[in-house]
Specification:
The complex is a heterodimer of chains A (330) and B (336). In chain A, 44% of the residues lie in helices and 17% in strands. In chain A, the strands form three sheets. Chain A has a six-stranded parallel beta sheet, with helices on both faces. A four-stranded parallel beta sheet of chain A has the order 7-6-8-9, with helices on both faces. In chain A, strands 10-12 form a two-stranded antiparallel sheet. In chain A, helix 6 links the parallel strand 6 and strand 7. In chain A, helix 1 crosses helix 3 and helix 5 packs parallel to helix 6. By secondary structure, chain B is mainly alpha-helical. The longest helix of chain B is centred in the N-terminal third of the chain and has 28 residues. Chain B has 14 helices and four strands. Chain B has one domain: ABC transporter involved in vitamin B12 uptake, BtuC (Orthogonal Bundle), CATH 1.10.3470. Helices cover 73% and strands 4% of the residues of chain B. The chains are: A alpha/beta (330), B mainly alpha (336). Chains A and B meet through helix 2, strand 7, helix 7 and helix 8 of A and helix 3 and helix 13 of B.
Chain lengths: 330, 336
């Protein structure tokens, strides 16, 4: 089999990424040829959450040194396709994929599936049912539950009326699902008035800047639906620099440990947070290991569900301990 | 007559565009009352000061016929190095002031070093600036990611950094402000003004500035006129590296942390956009710092306007892209 130029470049990239991190045995040695080999393809760490994905992937992989791992973070779909092609060329039996984008990754996933590669698809689904297991976070529930929390709290403490700022993330389906679901809840509650809506690109600095502008525009804001903990921190800084931290509270999202800590300590700016655990990549890796490790793939697959949805959970001071991971990067 | 008006427009169109935008937003727009607020005008300057400083450096390189795509990555690396150094010293029991000063100097040195490497690749290595700094764009970011394990580096001590990043000179006393809070011009804004003035003087009033223009305009002619072409270019890259370091350190101070994947991301595009809107020729040999400053403010006002008027963020790029292209179309030389 001949490697195309693209594949061999990708192979270089993939080994460059995985080798120093895991010090795996040279591919040619006799023992490694019998090893189960699994590829893990994830988006590059462009934000706190994706850095968390990388950290959790490494945690899960480190539990199984007997498996030959290939880990490749990709900044865009093109790189990710090349990574997966390279993994297939290396003959991996399993793939765990958190897609940078759904549509462009579907054909290569289909190609892998046709070769009999076991595929666990995490978080962002392929357009065709080519994954053996699809494990996703529920972004609509994320939007609904977070908005409902704001409505409930406003009904309890704010007399049912509140001026809310909505901070959106990077334009993509994840963001659209969250924002649309939240908007439906807000719309059903006439006491909630959306006084500003802007994109903070899931980025602390950007969120800080748009929040500064929205603060000038709106002399009264009660709540920020920040939809992400990085953005929550940016919004918080803008609010504090404007001296309005006494009158505004924030609901972030994803469960960054710093925010979880603030919730735990009853910080008035952070009455709650909502999970969207980056550890779901570790769940996916664990599933792939469980199916492939002992050579009983067919048997195990016969009872494994094909679609699992991880519900998001509200983090409150009462349960925050459970969601605080001191050693995690996120 | 018509040709003269066209010529004036070509030269000063950016001023007209800036004034039109400013007046429109401050007087006629729906959110004019909010736009005019001193806090908002201060925010616009503060949010764009870092980009402005980078754009000043970028103008110098572009005038010399080069380009620097690595600025954003250099910003991130400088911020990361500064915090790593400051935190390491803090761990060894040094006082906050010495930690921060050492960190800032380490950051500035990093910027100068990156600029020197880029400059040497272009001059000694004879690489096109686009390629050399493309390598920097990818490479310096990657080193930053490795330093921070792709996450965030936080300052161990944040008081002094916060004072640098958020503090400034009070310009309007609290009693005059509707919000009842003193309006300060942050050090970021002041630094931006200082860098812009130094850049303008350097480019238009010094021998080095004339050499930059000569090298960018016609390298062979400059060489025959005994201009040390390589040295002029190298210094331009060192200066833009220094500007990137200042910008990166300012943002680091403000956030008291460095996000290894985000700090300075796509800064090269914003800076180049400001330079181009300001009327500096991408071909080199012609440029002006005051134009870059206006170009930056035009982009900044548009950004502010889009957020104020709640235009969906999906459309922001379309508006900005149109402005960039229009600005260059208007200023394009008609004599060509």
């Amino acid at each position: 089999m001949t490697l195309t130029r693209r594949q061999s470049l990708g192979l270089l990239a993939a080994t460059a990424v995985s080798a120093p991190a895991f010090g795996q045995a040279p591919a040619g040695s006799a023992s490694s040829r019998k090893k189960v080999s699994i590829g893990v393809s994830i988006p590059a760490a462009d934000h706190g959450w994706t850095a968390g994905v990388l950290w959790w992937a490494k945690q899960a992989m480190a539990l199984y040194p007997e498996i030959e791992w290939t880990l490749a973070p990709a900044a865009n779909p093109e790189k990710q396709i090349a990574d997966i092609e390279t993994m297939l060329a290396k003959g991996v039996q399993g793939l765990v994929i958190l897609a940078t984008e759904s549509a462009p990754l579907t054909p290569v996933a289909k190609q892998a599936s046709e070769r009999g590669t076991f595929i666990v698809n995490v978080d962002r689904g392929f357009l065709e049912p080519v994954a053996d297991i699809f494990l996703e976070g529920d972004n609509k529930s994320f939007g609904r539950k977070s908005a409902q929390f704001i409505v409930d709290r406003v009904n309890k403490t704010g007399g049912g009326k509140a001026k809310v700022v909505v901070l959106e993330g990077i334009p993509c389906t994840v963001n659209t699902d969250r924002v649309t679901a939240a908007a439906e809840v807000f719309k059903a509650n006439p006491g909630i008035e959306i006084v500003g809506q802007a994109s903070g690109m899931w980025n602390r600095q950007k969120a800080l800047e748009v929040m500064e502008t929205l603060l000038v525009k709106n002399p009264k804001i009660d709540v920020v639906w920040a939809s992400d903990d990085d953005m929550a921190l940016g919004a918080e800084q803008a609010i504090k620099e404007a001296g309005r931290e006494k009158s505004i509270w924030i609901l972030g999202g994803a469960g960054m440990k710093d925010i979880v800590k603030r919730v735990k300590e009853n910080d008035p700016m952070y009455p709650a947070d909502i999970t969207y655990p980056p550890s779901m990549i570790a769940t996916g890796i664990q599933l792939a290991v469980g199916v492939l490790r002992d050579g009983n793939r067919a048997k195990i697959q016969s009872f494994m569900p094909r679609h699992m949805m991880i519900d998001v959970e509200l983090i409150t001071p009462a349960n925050a301990d459970k969601y605080y991971f001191a050693e995690s990067v996120y | 007559m018509l040709a003269r008006i066209a010529g004036l427009f070509e030269r000063y169109g950016v001023i007209v565009a800036f004034l039109v935008l400013l007046v429109w937003n401050a007087v006629f727009a729906e959110s004019a009352a909010d736009f005019r607020r001193p806090e908002n005008l201060r925010n616009i300057l503060n949010q764009n000061a870092a980009t402005g400083i980078v754009a000043v450096g970028m103008t110098l390189v572009i005038v010399a016929g080069g380009i620097d795509l690595a600025v954003g990555s250099v910003m991130a690396l400088c911020g990361a190095v500064a915090l790593v150094v400051a935190n390491a010293l803090a761990l060894r029991g040094f006082g906050e002031t010495s930690c921060v000063i050492a960190g800032l100097f380490a950051g500035l040195a990093t910027g100068i070093a990156c600029g020197t490497v880029n400059g040497l690749l272009v001059t000694l290595g004879r690489l096109p600036a686009f390629i050399a700094t493309l390598g920097g764009l990818v490479g310096y970011r990657s080193i930053t990611l490795a330093l921070a394990d792709a996450g965030e580096i936080r300052a161990a001590k944040t008081d002094l950094l916060g004072a640098i990043g958020r503090g400034g000179i009070p310009v309007i006393p609290s009693t005059w402000m509707e919000s009842g809070r003193t309006l300060t011009f942050t050090w970021n804004i002041i630094l931006f003004f200082v860098v812009a003035i130094v850049g303008q003087v350097l480019l238009s009033r010094t021998r080095y500035g004339r050499h930059l223009v000569a090298v960018g305009g016609n390298e062979t002619a400059a060489r025959y006129s005994a201009v040390a072409v390589d040295r002029v270019r190298l210094i331009a890259f060192v200066l833009v590296g220094l500007c990137s370091a200042i910008a990166g350190l300012m943002q680091t101070a403000r956030m008291a942390s460095v996000s290894s994947s985000q700090l300075g991301l796509q800064m090269e595009l914003d800076a180049i956009a400001a330079v181009v809107i300001g009327g500096t020729s991408m071909a080199g040999g012609k440029g002006r710092i005051w134009g870059t400053v206006l170009g930056l403010l035009i982009l900044a006002i548009i950004n502010n306007m889009l957020v104020m008027s709640a235009v969906s963020s999906h459309w922001h790029g379309a508006v900005k892209g149109m402005i960039i292209v229009l600005a260059v179309l208007i200023q394009r030389s008609r004599r060509a």
